[in-house]
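Task card 7
Instruction: Convert sequence to structure tokens.
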Amino acid sequence: MHTLHIIKRPLITEKSMTDATAGKFTFLVDRSAHKNAIKNAVEKTFSVHVTAVVTSMVKGKTKRTGKRRTEVVEGAVKRATVTLATGEKIALFDIGATK
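Output:
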């Protein structure tokens, strides 16, 4: 699997921003990606050293939308929290950072 297809997007929430100060960064990843593939993709994409990867599956939700209130099902996603070596960061999670 290509590294661009493994990491879908960073997950920016209050909790993930708090974890970012401790060197833990959260991403939404492809559902079929395994921990080694996630580790290699993050290391190659952001030029950092990953020490640990924790993954979790988040269930999909059913929402009602539109004029007729039809049900739409959001699919399940996989979340990966990556711990970096001490002193390293990813600029995406740094508020006000320049690239």
